[in-house]
Structures are given as C-alpha cells and as structure tokens.
Amino acid sequence: MPRHLLVAEDLTAHEIEAVFAVTRDLQVKFDEGIREPLMPGRVLALVFEKPSLRTRVSFQTAMVHLGGSSLFLGADTGFASSRESVDDFGKVLSQYVDGIVCRTKSHDTLEALAASSSVPVINGLSDASHPCQALADIYTLRQHAGRVQGLKLAFVGDGNNVARSLAMVSALLGMRFVLAGPEAYHFGQDFLDHVARIAPGAELIQTTDPHEAVRDAAVVYTDVWASMGQEKEREERHKAFRAYQVNAALMASAPEAIFMHCLPAHRGEEVTDEVIDGPQSVVIQEAANRLHVQKGLIAWLLGHAN
Ligand code: CP
Ligand code: NVA
C-alpha cells in the first residue's frame, strides 16, 4: 500500500516536522542557487477537476527543481467522467507515474483514486480539505515566529476545506485554533470529535465574535466566503459573512498578528486591500512557500514510499 496524503492527519506531528526539515534544507540550498536533483527520472501526474494557479505551478516547478518532471492532466483525460471509472483510471495512471496530485470536486473521488493507485496520491484540494496549503501556512508561521506550539491561529470566515486542514495541523502541532463565523458555517460535531480523537486536548474554539477570536492571535487567516463549487450560494453567503470581513478595524484587535490568506482572494469581500497589501500581510511569502514545502513533501513522501 502506498503512502497517501489525502488529509492533514495522514501525517503525524513528527512526520510534519520531518517534511519541514527536508523543506528547510532544500530552501537553504535553493537560496544558494542549488537545485538538488533528488528525484531524477521521476514523474508526477497532476489530475485537476478545478482551476488552479498556485497548486498546479508549484508542484510542476517543484518536480523540475528536483530533477524530475510532471504531467498536467485536465478535463480531456476524462477523469471522473463517463469515459471510464475512477478505479480504472487510477490503476492505469499509477503504472506510468511515481506520484499523483489530484484536485477534486468531491473528496470521495479522491479517496477512490487513492484506493486504486499503486503510487502515492497527494490531495491538491478537495471540498473537504487542502493539506498542502495548511502545511505551507504553518511553515510560514514558523519562519515568522520561530515556533508554533502554543500560538493561536484565528480563522475568520467559512469552516471550509482550508479551515479544516489548518485546524487539524494546528491541533497536531499543539497550536490553539479559533474559528469565527456565523454558526451555520462552523465545523460540525463530527469534525470536532475527529480532531479530539486525533489530537486529544487540542484547543479548538468556535465563536461568532471575530474581535474576540483575533485577540492575542499570532495569525489572522481568512479565505473566500464561497469556495469553488459553491457559486450558487454566493448571495446568501455574502449576507451571512458580511460582518466577518478582515479589515483594518479587525486587525487593530490583533496588532502583533500576521495576516494570511491561501489566495485567490476576493478583495473587498472577505479582506480589504488595506489589510492584504498592508504591513501585517505575508500572503506572497505564504504562496511562495507552497513551492518549498511541496518540494520537501515530494522528497519525503516519494522517498518514504520507495
Ligand atoms: N491556494 C491555492 O491552492 O491556490 P490555487 O487554487 O491557485 O491552486
Ligand atoms: N476554499 C477555497 C480555497 C481555494 C484555494 C476553495 O475551495 O475554492
């Protein structure tokens, strides 16, 4: 059975630190102009059902830096369509390549692909989770704060895929996590119970008060109010989340915090220009770290599996 990364908790805290250690090593070398070819002749396939800039380009570039290559497989390959079953697709594709990154509409499709694949499958975002994003985000926080344990991450907005993965990585690494949003968009009890099972004693709080949430936070994080696939709910979500915009008034309650956003951002909605372009924002470094952390992840996961 290959080792997959479908959700953040597929890695232990110890393994996350191991990925970060490989990342740091590769990043130091990269800054010195060295691109260590740890994956010569290896091929990574990218199977995407939804648009992407950061995930797609950072994985493809990562493979070039590591001395391997990648294939971007869009809608014309017929993934998750009437052309053939996901099972057949996964069994065949995994004979050709060394790893698969997949972005799916439904997490069930990702699980079906992983079940049929003889090589590691990495979640490049599903409706349920976005573990590569969360790993890069927490790595970025570590670069800023020098540590993560005990620090508070305040996520203001929707309890979505990104929020779930951040909550899980936070719990694994001993961080405090607060979700501020309308109750209808909080995490469900199933997810809370799941986090408590994986990381007993982890602090995960939900509130409707964004100012209370961001007090003493090391990170104020937000994401779009309507994720890909939720376009039809846009209007009702905008009404529900209006009071949860991350703006200068909210950031004033967290003067020591850095501001993060996975991007793409809808400026003027979940975040103002003043905040995302302001002195507390680290969103560009955060996006850059997708490349570095995914290099560490590929080297660790594919090395681990083979
Ligand atoms: N943050 C992120 O995953 O961006 P893309 O959708 O552009 O890949
Ligand atoms: N929650 C967003 C994240 C995009 C990177 C979405 O799923 O569309």
What does this 3D model show about the protein?
- The chain has 306 residues and is an alpha/beta fold.
- It folds into 2 domains: 8-130 and 290-304, Rossmann fold; 131-286, Rossmann fold.
- 43% of the residues lie in helices and 13% in strands.
- It has 12 helices and 9 strands.
- It has helices at residues 13-31, 54-65, 86-96, 107-116, 131-145, 161-172, 189-198, 210-214, 234-241, 248-251, 273-276, 283-305; strands at residues 43-48, 69-73, 99-103, 121-123, 152-156, 176-180, 204-207, 219-222, 258-261.
- The strands form 2 sheets. Strands 7-6-5-8-9 form a 5-stranded parallel sheet.
- Strand 6, helix 7 and strand 7 form a beta-alpha-beta unit.
- Helix 3 (86-96) crosses helix 4.
- The longest helix has 23 residues, at 283-305.
- The radius of gyration is 19 Å and the shape is globular.
- The model has no long low-confidence stretch (mean pLDDT 97).
- The structure holds phosphoric acid mono(formamide)ester and norvaline (NVA).
- The site of phosphoric acid mono(formamide)ester has 9 residues, from helix 2.
Strand order of the largest sheet: 7-6-5-8-9
- Domain count: 2
Low-pLDDT residue spans: none
Q: Calculate Rg over CA atoms.
A: 19 Å
Q: How large is the share of residues in beta strands?
A: 5-15%
Treating each run of at least 4 consecutive H or I residues as one helix, how many helices? Answer: 12
The kinds of small molecule bound in this structure are: phosphoric acid mono(formamide)ester, norvaline
Instruction: Return the string of H and E elements.
Output: HEHEHEHEHEHEHEHEHHEHH
Main sheet overview: 5 strands, parallel
**Oligomer status:** single chain
Reported CATH architecture of the largest domain: 3-Layer(aba) Sandwich
What is the total tally of β strands? 9
CATH topology category name of the largest domain: Rossmann fold
N-C termini distance: 11 Å
What helical percentage do the residues reach?
A: 40-55%
Classification by helices and strands: alpha/beta
Choose one word for the global shape: globular
* Name of the CATH homologous superfamily of the largest domain: Aspartate/ornithine carbamoyltransferase
CATH level 1 name of the largest domain: Alpha Beta
